[in-house]
Write a structure and sequence with these properties.
It is built from 5 helices and no strands. With 75 residues, the protein is an all-alpha fold. The longest helix is centred in the middle third of the chain and has 19 residues, at 27-45.
């Protein structure tokens, strides 16, 4: 509710779900949060199999491991 009030005070009449979720965060923090949530969703979809996950994400497997480390994603 506090985020909604902040957004309304900023002049955003109809805040989207993303605006509410990431309100008050820096672009870097919001991007990292989104990447972590999305990668976790795809990992679960492929039952943590890194090969199909990296293919789905359009990144190399080694780059996927970089994201897992950077975003502190563990099974």
């Amino acid at each position: 509710m506090k985020r909604l009030i902040e957004l309304l005070d900023m002049g955003i009449d109809e805040p989207s779900a993303y605006a509410l979720k990431y309100a008050g965060k820096t672009l870097k923090d919001a991007t990292n949060d989104f990447q972590k949530e999305y990668i976790l969703q795809i990992l679960r979809m492929y039952e943590w199999d890194k090969g199909p996950t990296s293919k789905h994400l359009g990144v190399s497997t080694s780059n996927l491991y970089h994201y897992l480390y950077k975003l502190d994603i563990e099974r």
